[in-house]
């Protein structure tokens, strides 16, 4: 029997599992293949929805689903976290057991999460919409109470997931205070370590004028060093000090703890992979996808999805003995809501730079459609739509 282990049941792990289970259903029935996901979490959240929860008051339960509803037929789950991967000897160990669990193929899709240890004082001061829906919901309760003051929003450190999310939070706060009729009493300042409001110039060209027309101030080349929640001050590595009344920073992110120091990861713990077929450096039977890889592109759900499809197809090909192998094109597509029912997208590939896409209602509608189909897409129900939409970037044949 070929044993496939998937570590992490988020956006990347689930789409990979459902694609594998569908294409290998015969082999699973005959006992020739097993697919097992390992993850402690018994429910998943639609992470892009954290913004709606934090800044528009959406009920957290609307963006959650129990894991049992997300598993495709033929996929097993072990509700335990992985604490060690040994690729040379093909086994993992979990936190809750001393047993060595063997595998033939492994896919690591353990994502990324906020790393507050990097910035002293940030945890105590920050209103964090990158951790979970519950935290985001607490933010909305605070936002509703704000009647005046200085808001600082932006990028607290690198890397982080969903590159446009700090800009989105600035636009959503602006919209909230305009709708509440108190925008003139609230100062909004956006801080970023980059030299532009958005790191990619084509998108910067689109959103810079919006910042100006909405009176959102910006401070570029501001690398947050520490936060003093008593004095309500942020200090940058560049030596600037900034006062705030309310702080909404996107914290720097880190990979799952068990990866740091392991031979498959770089010095920060991101898994070293081939950016085309996602195999882990030096290991043909091991793959990593999504936020946890060291690929220098956006950490976002679309990438995790497209990478998962490539890895699943290549494992299926190997098990079925077919010749074709596939590669990921580096396609990114992150939506950026600019407020008042408009959005743009950050779109690019390894070979094509980010495009200039003007914010529109059509883009906003497209973002909303993605939200509607998200849970079904994890079961693989909308692969026809992904193929149609991404065309040549859905995946390509590996030369
Ligand atoms: C505010 C916000 C807005 C966003 N907006 C967008 C957007 O508009 N578009 C977009 O494409 N993306 C967006 N994203 C990013 C997107 O949600 C993530 O990039 C995506 O979920 C990554 O998928 P993943 O499978 O790599 O990781 P995740 O979906 O985070 O899943 C990782 C899983 O691994 C599990 N895990 C961790 N450690 C272990 C362990 N030791 N053992 C077993 N399991 C483990 C976790 O419990 C988790 O279930 C947004 C994120 C946020 C926070």
Keywords summarizing the entry:
FAD/NAD(P)-binding domain, 2 domains, 399 residues, 30% helix, alpha/beta, four-stranded parallel β-sheet, binds flavin-adenine dinucleotide, five-stranded parallel β-sheet, 23 strands
Largest sheet: 5 strands, parallel
**CATH topology heading of the largest domain:** FAD/NAD(P)-binding domain
Oligomer: single chain
Category by helix and strand content: alpha/beta
Total individual domains = 2
Straight-line N-to-C gap: 30 Å
Helicity range of the residues?
25-40%
The CATH architecture assignment of the largest domain turns out to be 3-Layer(bba) Sandwich
Q: CATH-wise, what's the superfamily of the largest domain? A: FAD/NAD(P)-binding domain
For the record, the CATH class of the largest domain is Alpha Beta
**Helical segment count:** 11
Question: What ligands can be seen in this structure?
Answer: flavin-adenine dinucleotide
Poorly predicted runs are: none
The largest beta-sheet arranges its strands as 5-2-1-9-19
Shape summary: globular
Number of strands: 23
Q: What is the percentage of strand-forming residues?
A: 15-25%
Q: Report the radius of gyration as a whole number of Å.
A: 21 Å
Mean pLDDT: 97
């Amino acid at each position: 029997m070929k044993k496939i282990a998937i570590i992490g049941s988020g956006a990347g792990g689930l789409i990979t599992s459902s694609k594998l289970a569908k294409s290998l259903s015969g082999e699973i029935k005959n006992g020739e293949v097993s697919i097992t996901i390992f993850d402690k979490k018994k429910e998943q959240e639609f992470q892009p929805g954290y913004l709606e929860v934090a800044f528009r008051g959406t009920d957290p339960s609307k963006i959650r689903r129990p894991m049992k509803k997300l598993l495709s037929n033929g996929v097993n789950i072990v509700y335990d976290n992985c604490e060690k991967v040994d690729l040379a000897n093909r086994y993992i160990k979990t936190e809750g057991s001393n047993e060595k669990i063997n595998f033939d193929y492994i896919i690591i899709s353990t994502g990324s999460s906020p790393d507050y240890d990097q910035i002293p004082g940030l945890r105590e001061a920050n209103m964090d919409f990158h951790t979970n829906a519950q935290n985001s919901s607490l933010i909305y309760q605070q936002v509703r109470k704000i009647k005046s003051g200085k808001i600082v929003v932006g990028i607290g450190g690198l890397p982080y997931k969903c590159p446009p999310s700090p800009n989105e939070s600035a636009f959503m706060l602006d919209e909230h205070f305009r709708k509440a009729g108190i925008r003139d009493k609230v100062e909004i300042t956006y801080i970023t370590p980059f030299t532009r409001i958005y790191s990619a110039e084509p998108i910067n060209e689109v959103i810079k004028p919006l910042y100006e027309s909405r009176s959102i101030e910006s401070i570029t080349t501001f690398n947050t060093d520490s936060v003093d929640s008593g004095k309500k001050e942020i200090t940058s590595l560049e030596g600037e000090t900034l006062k705030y009344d309310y702080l909404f920073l996107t914290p720097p992110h880190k990979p799952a703890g068990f990866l740091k120091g392991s031979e498959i990861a770089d010095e920060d713990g991101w898994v070293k992979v081939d950016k085309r077929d996602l195999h882990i450096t030096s290991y043909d039977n091991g793959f990593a996808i999504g936020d946890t890889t060291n690929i220098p592109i956006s950490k976002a759900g679309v990438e995790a999805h497209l990478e998962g499809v490539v890895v699943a197809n290549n494992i299926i090909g190997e098990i079925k003995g077919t010749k074709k192998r596939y590669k990921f094109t580096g396609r990114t597509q992150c939506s950026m809501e600019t407020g008042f029912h408009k959005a743009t997208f950050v779109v690019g590939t390894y070979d094509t730079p980010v495009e200039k896409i003007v914010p529109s209602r059509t883009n906003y509608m497209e973002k909303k459609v993605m939200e509607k189909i998200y849970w079904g897409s994890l079961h693989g129900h909308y692969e026809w739509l992904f193929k149609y939409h991404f065309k040549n970037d859905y995946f390509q044949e590996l030369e």
